[in-house]
Amino acid sequence: MAEDSRRITFPMKSATRLAFFVVLVAAAIYWFRFSPVAVATHVISEDKLTQEVMGTGTLEARISATISPKISGRIARVLVDQGDTVVAGQLLVQLDDEELRQQVAIAEANVEAAVAAIERLKTDKARANVILTQAQKNFDRIDSLRKRDATSEGDLDQAAEALGVAMADVARSEAGINEGQKGLIAAEKNLEYHRARQQDTRITAPFDGLVVDRNRELGDVVVPGSSILTLISTDELWISAWVDETQMGKLAEGQTANVVFRSQPQRVFPGTVSRLGREADRETREFIVDVRVLEMPKNWAVGQRAEVFIKIAELESVVVISPEFLVRGDDGDEGAFVIRDGRANWRMLKLGTRGRSLVQVLDGVKAGDLVAKPVNNRSTLRDGQGVSPR
Fold it and tell me: Which of 130, 185, 319, 372 sits in a 20 to 30 Å window from 73, CA-based?
């Protein structure tokens, strides 16, 4: 009898354990499948929706110049640094001009020598004119005497020869003066050239602006074209944004825009479309749109990244949903979980215009519906699952 009792007890214990295990599994499945999930909620409403075209780009200056020398030389002084504001004509860099000053002094001395030479030639011409006048008088007197046979033919020939020599001296003096004047012009041009080269050692600002980069220091030797400073005009700063070419037909100059710098993502700065690019990138199929920033942040830098949102239309009184409550289904369609009787019900949505903070809903929900998403990002919702709004 004892053996039969033990034979009956063992199967009963096994069945009890199996039943207990099944109950645990069922409870776990129920808890996992139907237990309420803590969710955040959002009420579907009607609102005004701004239709925007988004682009990403960098802050650039419309006018920018690389400050470089026209001549080779050694930097003697750099009078500005990056971050400094300058005005047109302000001295930025001074090159060593000692050798050029000496060349200017030599050229000035050559001009003075040419002027003195011309003065001497003019004196020689005056002397030659006096001699010519005297020779003409002597020739006229002897010619008059020869006509009365009061002198010989030889005296007349000598007087004529002296007159010819005097005339030749005057012509030579005039030619010397002309040559001297040409030499003076050459000396003055040479002086002008050396003065211009000396002036080229003074590098000034071509326009009012801001120094954004400094590449050289005192003592550096620079050549034409080498960068010393980078200067930009702050009159017009814009975001050169890349926009998908499919949006090209929606854009026009003058459209208003919002600019969001990545350094200050919580703030929006006003802007306007200044220029549309006329060439699309053949790889990315995007084109450049320049959006002028009407108000700059306190701290900014050329080249920093930003997003632009160009307003192309405004829709009044449309059903909207916050994009954070949209869920992509297994088939790739977007939808949302609508709360009904404490449970999440999956609805596939037909969406329209997308804004930065709202998305238009054409079909699937109506104003007043309550949609949900898990509070814990690691949690997921399923159709029919219980929810606990927070």
Answer: 185
CATH number for 143: 1.10.287.620
Q: What are phi and psi of 157, to 5 degrees?
A: -65, -40
| Number of domains observed in the structure of the chain | 3
Q: Is residue 195 part of a domain?
A: yes
- Measured between alpha carbons, how far is 259 from 334 in angstroms, rounded to an integer? 28
One domain, residues 194 and 210: no
Q: Tell me the Cα Rg of the chain.
A: 48
What is the CATH number for 295? 2.40.30.170
Summarised one tens digit per residue, pLDDT across range 142-176 is 888 878 877 788 888 888 888 899 899 999 999 99
Q: Identify any residues that bridge with 357 across adjacent strands, giving them in sequence order.
A: none
How much is the pLDDT for 229?
Answer: 95
In a domain, 171, yes or no: yes
pLDDT for 201 equals: 95
DSSP 266: T
Asked if residue 138 and residue 122 are part of one domain, the reply reads yes
Q: Give the count of beta carbons closer than 10 Å to the beta carbon of residue 203.
A: 22
- From first CA to last CA, the distance across the chain in angstroms is 63
Q: What is the pLDDT of residues 202-217, one digit of tens each?
A: 999 999 999 999 999 9
Position 145 scores a pLDDT of: 84
Q: Which tokens belong to 245?
A: 């070419």
Residues 113 and 192 in one domain: yes
DSSP code of residue 219: T
Residue 141 pLDDT greater than 70, yes or no: yes
Per the structure, the complete domain to which residue 264 belongs is given by 52-61+233-314
